Task: inverse folding
């Protein structure tokens, strides 16, 4: 995994600023609706998100489901680890009511009783030509999840030109790359302080990925320009504030993850 190592020199660079900023609906339009529900994904589409972001977990009986946490506790009315539950048990859970309680300003009775979707259901609803940005979560506890993801991508004939697979796990991305080098990959990175990246780290990522996804909080213009000038894409997560969106665009990012794709759309339109 990439570590924050200081970049020496920091010489002159040609400034790159991108017009076509990729708008990624993070867990769907999850600022407006319960994350990782079909309604949240649908809302992301309507709010001009370019990609549906999907975090994957795997059930005890081997089904890939859309959920951020390893445990169901935060986003459903259940308790326990996904890896210990069957899909039938997961389907019993209410994945919407928690949102109404936590965010009364966005509450909607339609969210009550929403189910946790499987990846298959997402592909069935949004079809093969949609744009998916799929994260292998906790791949070390779900051996084989990459293979199962690719099986479903092939089963539903998902357009690979519009598919991105992301992970914090370099191992998981390398497995994906080995299984199917045609799938485009993004290396997620988490920085705890001022973000730096070396030429060697960039070269290593470029062996298997087309971009990086760092947390936006510790980014700086030098980092962004260095990455972009190397030919990698850079999609920071998770940006929910219009001023910060504009700053990152001015610094040269090629896209970003947001819970509010409507806000990023406004920024892109200069509103
Ligand atoms: O995938 C980008 C971003 O979502 C990574 O963080 O924890 O929200 O999955 P997380
Ligand atoms: Ca994610």
Result:
């Amino acid at each position: 995994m990439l570590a924050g190592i200081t970049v020496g020199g920091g010489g002159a660079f040609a400034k790159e600023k991108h017009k076509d900023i990729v708008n990624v609906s993070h867990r769907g339009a999850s600022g407006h609706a319960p994350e990782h529900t079909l309604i949240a994904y649908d809302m992301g589409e309507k709010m001009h998100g370019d990609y549906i972001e999907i975090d994957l977990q795997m059930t005890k009986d081997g089904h890939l489901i859309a959920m951020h946490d390893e445990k169901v506790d935060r986003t459903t009315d259940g308790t326990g680890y996904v890896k210990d539950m069957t899909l039938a048990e997961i389907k019993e859970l209410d994945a919407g009511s928690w949102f109404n309680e936590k965010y009364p300003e966005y509450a909607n009775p339609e969210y009550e009783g929403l189910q946790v979707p499987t990846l298959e259901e997402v592909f069935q609803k949004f079809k093969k030509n949609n744009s998916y940005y799929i994260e292998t979560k906790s791949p070390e506890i779900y051996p084989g999840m990459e293979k199962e993801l690719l099986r479903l991508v092939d089963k539903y004939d998902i357009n690979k030109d519009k598919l991105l697979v992301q992970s914090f796990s370099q191992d998981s991305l390398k497995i994906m790359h080995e299984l199917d080098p045609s799938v485009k990959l993004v290396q997620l990175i988490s920085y705890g302080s001022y973000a730096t990246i070396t030429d060697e780290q960039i070269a290593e990522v470029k062996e298997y990925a087309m971009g990086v996804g760092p947390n936006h909080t510790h980014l700086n213009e030098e980092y962004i320009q260095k990455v972009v000038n190397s030919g990698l894409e850079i999609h920071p997560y998770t940006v929910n504030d219009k001023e910060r969106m504009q700053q990152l665009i001015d610094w040269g990012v090629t896209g970003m993850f947001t819970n509010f794709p409507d806000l990023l759309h406004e920024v892109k339109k200069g509103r």
Q: What stands out?
A: The chain is about 30% helix and 15% strand. The first strand starts at residue 22 and ends at 25.
